[in-house]
Design a protein that fits this description.
single chain, alpha+beta, two-stranded antiparallel ribbon, 2 helices, 2 strands, about 30% helix, globular
Length: about 80
Amino acid sequence: MTKLSDLGPPVPGVLNRDDLIRSDGHFYNCPNCGQRVDQRDLRQVFYHEGPGHEPLEPEPEPEQEPAAVAATAEGSTEAGE
């Protein structure tokens, strides 16, 4: 089974429409295999364009560095004030 990392480094897409600012607007279900595809990652889009493919094998999310986690937590606290 193919992993997303087998397709190479991320290839970010560019948003063409302002109405897709919600995160769920960046995803669609592949009509061939049914897997959710993140349109912001063109590796996924191109892979799912081919007929007769299997879903990509799920991979664990990369762990964030402790400093990045702390900065994210601090930013969400400040935004809530």
